[in-house]
Amino acid sequence: MDTLNKENIQTAEILLPCNNLVETLQFFTDKLGFKMESIGPAEEPSLAVISGYGIRIRLEPGNNQDPVSINLLCSDPASIADGKLELTAPNGTCVNLIEVDPPLNIPNVKQTFVLSKMSDTNQWNEGRAGMWYRDLIPDRLGGYVVASHIRILDGGPVPDYVHYHKILFQMIYCYKGWARLVYEDQGEPFVIEAGDCVLQPPQIRHQVLESSPGMEVIELTCPAVHETCVDHKIKLPTSSVDPGRLFNGQHFIRHEAARTEWKPWRMEGFEARDIGIASATDGLAGVRVARPIGQPQPEFVSHDADLLFMFLLNGSAELNCDQMDSELLTAGDSFIIPSALKHSLSKCSEDMEVLEVALPAVFNTDHHLKRARLNS
Fold first, then answer.
1. What is the pLDDT of residues 85-122, one digit of tens each?
2. CB under 8 Å to 318, separation ≥6 — which residues?
3. Fewer Cβ close by (within 10 Å): the C or N end of the chain?
4. Pairing between strand 55-60 and 9-17?
5. Which residues pair with 183 in a beta bridge?
6. Nearest CA to 220 among 317, 321, 355, 51?
7. Which domains, from first to last, does the chain contain?
8. Judging by DSSP bridges, how do beta strands 270-274 and 263-264 pair with one another?
9. Residues 42, 333: Cα–Cα separation, whole Å
10. C-beta separation of 1 from 82 below 8 A
């Protein structure tokens, strides 16, 4: 043990197995006064870090009979004990040496066709801060992305706290109702309404203050597994206002649907409004809302993007994919189209609108005439 290099150990936490996170958190926070430090995943929390009275506890899924472990959070774990990352104390306690701020892990995307129907039952799970989550991408495309349809059933104040996310990309689209939000360095709280959208850059501090009854948003985040961390020090709104500030290379964006113009979309016979996320992320991602102009003639297209996610906001349409049966889509349905899969939208209702999220923002699109025309 004389070889231990202790200078870069920054903090320690006790690792406790926990199979009932909600009740355990209530016990430590409500009864004992511990503070939340982080929680995840937001859509169905299973692990959390709390602190109080000079100790830090990490609650993770596990059997209550498992031995208690201690995590030592280090700036350079490999330099602590001659490269060993797991140590065992004489009494059997396991000591894990881990990075205090590990680099973000972005898994390689595993593209699949995904269809999520609003009509499917038993889809909603209670998540963070009393919000209800509907999982739109169950397989997460290999951990690359998570998309959630989120509801707040009761209006009024939201039991949220100042927090931030360790992510590469995250957007929130207001689907129904309204919510009042506040963001670091972006001035006073503001309201987003149906059709509005915000880009939440990595680690920007923010808070949901209140919402209308039945408020719904669509949230998409890369990567799927990420931490939501509480910031107990900062107070929002901040005294400083800096709308041009970069957060890990991205600008905050607040898109108001009422202040936008419609331009031609990648599919013939449609127009779209651009949310502005492509420029704010330097091309990392692009977000648009598209609608038909009259009744478009079906034309098959394909793409080469890593991710092409679409959520039907209003109306109905028929999704046609090469070598697959057509699918009637109605409001609340979503789908993911893998690259190179030829697809089209047809039989659109007049009020049809679809939200499109693409990573990266710019991708190549190949157009193919309707097969019926080719065979005529």
1. 998 878 778 889 999 888 899 999 999 999 999 988 67
2. 326, 327, 328, 329, 345, 346, 347, 348
3. N
4. parallel
5. 206
6. 355
7. 9-99 (3.10.180.10), 123-235 (2.60.120.10), 259-374 (2.60.120.10)
8. antiparallel
9. 22
10. no
Place of tokens 């996320």: 277
Q: How far apart are CA 329 and CA 118, in angstroms?
A: 9
| Bridge partners for 134 per DSSP | 124, 149
- End-to-end CA distance of the chain, in Å? 81
CB atoms within 10 A of CB 79: 15
Q: Tokens for 298?
A: 């079906």
Contact in structure between 161 and 177 (CB atoms under 8 Å): no
> How many whole angstroms separate alpha carbon 338 and alpha carbon 346?
19
pLDDT in tens, 279-334: 999 999 999 999 999 887 878 999 999 999 999 999 999 999 988 899 999 999 99
Which stretches does DSSP call E strand in 299-372? 300-303, 307-314, 316-321, 327-330, 334-336, 343-346, 353-359, 365-368
Listed residue (220, 203, 360, 350) closest to 286, CA to CA:
360
CA distance 53 to 33: 9
Measured at the CA of 358, the angle between CA 300 and CA 344, to 5 degrees, comes to: 15
Q: In what order do the strands lie in the sheet with 270-274?
A: 114-116, 334-336, 307-314, 353-359, 286-292, 270-274, 263-264
* pTM listed for this prediction: 0.87
| Cα–Cα nearest to 181, from 232, 255, 81 | 255
